[in-house]
Amino acid sequence: MLEIVILIPLLSGxxxxxxxxxxxxxxxxxxxxxxxxxxxxxxxGFLPAMLPLYFTLTPLGGLVLVITSFLYCMTAIYxxxxxxxxxxxxxxxxxxxxxxxxxxxxxxxxxxHIIVLWIAIEATTLTSAPLILLHKSKGALEAAWxxxxxxxxxxxxxxxxxxxxILAMNQGGVQVPLNYNSLNGVAASLNPLWLKAAFxxxxxxxxxxxxxxxxxxxxxxxxxxxxxxxxxxLSGALLNCAFLGVYKTHVLLTxxxxxxxxxxxxxxxxxxxxLVAGVFILHQSDYKRLLAYSSIENMGIIAFGSGLGGxxxxxxxxxxxxxxxxxxxxxxxxxxxxxxxxxxQIKQTRGMIRLLPGTAAAFFSGFTAISGLPPFGLVVxxxxxxxxxxxxxxPVAIIIFISGLLLVFSxxxxxxxxxxxxxxxxxxxxxxxADRPARLLPSYTLLAVSIFLTFWMPERLWEIIRQAAVLMxxxxx
Amino acid sequence: MIxxxxxxxxxxxxxxxxxxxxxxxxxxxxxMAFQGVIVSIIPLALAHGSGIKAEGWEFLTATLLIKxxxxxxxxxxxVKKVANRREVEPYVSYNASIFIGLLITMAASxxxxxxxxxxxxxxxxxxPAGLTTVGAxxxxxxxxxxxITQVIGYLMLENGIYLxxxxxxxxxxxQHILEFGVLLDLLAGVMIMGIxxxxxxxxxxxxxxGILRSLKD
Lengths: 477, 217
What we know:
The complex is a heterodimer.
Chain A: H1 4-18, H2 21-43, H3 59-85, H4 91-110, H5 114-133, H6 138-172, H7 180-185, H8 192-210, H9 218-225, H10 228-255, H11 259-282, H12 287-308, H13 310-341, H14 352-355, H15 357-370, H16 378-391, H17 395-421, H18 437-455, H19 459-471
Helix pairs in contact in A: 1-2, 1-4, 2-3, 2-4, 3-4, 3-10, 3-13, 3-18, 4-5, 4-10, 5-6, 5-10, 6-8, 6-9, 8-10, 8-11, 9-10, 9-12, 10-11, 10-12, 10-13, 11-12, 11-17, 12-13, 12-16, 12-17, 13-15, 13-16, 13-18, 13-19, 15-17, 15-18
Chain B: H1 4-21, H2 25-46, H3 54-82, H4 94-115, H5 126-143, H6 147-169, H7 176-204
Helix pairs in contact in B: 1-2, 1-4, 1-5, 2-3, 2-6, 3-7, 4-5, 5-6, 6-7
């Protein structure tokens, strides 16, 4: 049964709330490994859904599920070592929230019913808020407050989008179950006007959660104030789940034959997000916020690619996979930097290559990867997107897209190069915590998987990517 | 003749306007409890006592309990524990707020008038009431100092969306279990906001959102 990917983390999460820290950490890891096994089985088609009305494994949903599960496993390994270094007074609550967060994300990944998807995505907000709150510093409180309030309001608007979909059904005289799968089959008879309204509200609602500008304001705060393992999950896994909400409505419009409408909206939001991120990265002083803005940029790229269709849509799906791997690796590494230097300021964390060589190598490779340089996967996806834009004749969009990428790259260079190679007064003895293999291995593994997938993509995975892209008007060629 | 549903919807409009004018936090909480009760029994009034099945009653009771009792109670406790000064402290004066409330109502009526031909035949007041409540909820969230009034604004927004949902999706009986899930999310959301609020109050000794402005670029 497919629903087991919800049950495993749910039960262990509830248990973790009552377990003392040590067994709690074991639960954190064990549940992650079990969940990964179940997710891979699900993607291979071994787990049919028990409640097909509510849950179905769509191609993109399956990808999101496996990515989430894999990132979670890596994060769990990291967390166990991370918890040894910091004093966390509410560790059971942290462990429990991590697992419940995984529950909500898994539910979002496999949900196909309009309302169930909504419930799951709202649940991701609620279960991840404690992960931001747990620091209890002033900044963390402010970030958690903004996060819960802005995302809840955004998602409330996504509920309106669900009502518009129901209205589009009623107007078109369609009588099918309320899930995306059945609606896709009858999309042509849905009322196009209300379908468009539903898409607009889905982009505003789920787009808030996904971090599309100008609804992104919560994202830099939440990602920078959360505990580093939680930042990795927020950026690498949660944003994909929110993208699913936008994607599914976009697929509906595409099957209804009015995909051009949603294409244009996605492209505009995408390009705008890239530019906004570029401008804010330029003058950034906090490296975790810098990474958060880079997430906004990458979500913009995904939205832009989805809007392009054709090769661009394939690029968007590949981009999603690699962004998750690379960005979560970067956030995990940034946790090491924070532990070592005790500061999130770029100015105070110079000369890592001498002081924290292992971390510096992971951080700089991650930066190379996220900038879209070979041998990492983003070079492939960005090329696909540019080719897609060329083929569909969007000259202005290509210019904005490429200049946006350059802006982000040059802005990030300005900060990352001194952080890695700059000279500093700090001596090795001044560091608070030294590198540990258990906190480096997950980062390296994530990057290695990205390289691996660039050069050798399993046939089955490629097929799933293609199917996910075809649904939103992708492929041809 | 005025139907029972119309009467209830008139109360919704009234509660929106009174909430914009109220200057005491406690008063605002009471209005929210009142609005919660009204909003949760509106589907009953619209069904004219005929179309509600057994599980429909269960859901209605649950909604009434959560919207009319549990959430206002949570707000009540929060106001008692958290707010040092019990005034609402608006950025926009009360008179101006009421005026804007009236403008929102007018805009909502105009929009509903334009939309009504493509809507299912429901009560004529339902759609404007929903839109007004959503608009006023947004307005409250934006123009009041205290963090707790933002929670109240969020609740009002949710009430409005619930009304809009009743207006748009009433013909399609989507399962009550799902509606219950939505309600549970809402409840958990308000609880978590309450917890954050509690910690904010302990750390900053105040719940003015003006002090929550340190994170920016």
